[in-house]
């Protein structure tokens, strides 16, 4: 005689999810979540800073910055929901190389470099991480992240459009900035790979999704396929 499945039995999809209550998960999540929170805070600060270089765009950049603070609050709530304390010192160190390069470019008035770092590399990095995370996130975090990723495309699009409008004059600075900063993203992915794996986020999937978003952005800006291939190679040989 057939028996009815228990209403409490997990579906195949649910059973494939991580154990959100395990100590291993919470430990890894404390660093991954901190990276997300710190990334949103730095994005806010970066967009405000770019507004000082592009005063005619300051209002729009301030609007983008406010969106990042909203995201930061949402991800802070995700940690609280799991009873996790985000490891913010780790996250601040994690972003230090890109932060330092952004601050150096800002001091020199290099708008192209600042936009490449924040609006292309960091936004593509965030979008790829959110894409890979959503299917394995806890229900609360999934709802938050699905809302955030839609906004991140707005930020990526802002950088694309400004660089596209100025593509005839940005090429040399863009190529150098890409050479200096794209390898840092690869290093960052390597650094977080073990913790991401605990959350069932595969490093190769993260890198593939990142490069896809990055290459699509460069195509939208107006670079040729040959140029994009050369730029992307910096992630492999930098």
| Sequence of secondary-structure elements | HHHHHHHHHH
Beta content comes to: under 5%
What kind of sheet is the major sheet? none
Helix count from the secondary structure assignment: 10
The structural class is mainly alpha
Measured on Cα atoms, how large is the radius of gyration? 19 Å
- The overall average pLDDT, rounded, is 89
Spans of at least 5 consecutive residues with low confidence: 1-15
N- and C-termini, Cα separation: 64 Å
Instruction: Kindly state the percentage of residues in helix.
Output: over 70%
| Counted beta strands | 0
Shape: globular
Describe the 3D structure.
This protein is mostly helical. It is 81% helix and 0% strand. It has helices spanning 12-15, 23-53, 58-82, 88-94, 96-107, 111-133, 139-165, 167-198, 203-221, 225-237. Helix 2 (23-53) packs antiparallel against helix 3 and helix 8 (167-198) packs antiparallel against helix 9. It is globular and about 50 Å long. The N and C termini lie far apart (64 Å). Mean pLDDT is 89; it is low at 1-15.
Give the tags:
single chain, 238 residues, mainly alpha, 10 helices, 81% helix, globular
Question: What is the topological layout?
Answer:
Elements: H1 12-15, H2 23-53, H3 58-82, H4 88-94, H5 96-107, H6 111-133, H7 139-165, H8 167-198, H9 203-221, H10 225-237
Compose a concise summary of this entry.
With 238 residues, the protein is mostly helical. It has helices at residues 12-15, 23-53, 58-82, 88-94, 96-107, 111-133, 139-165, 167-198, 203-221, 225-237. The longest helix is centred in the C-terminal third of the chain and has 32 residues, at 167-198.
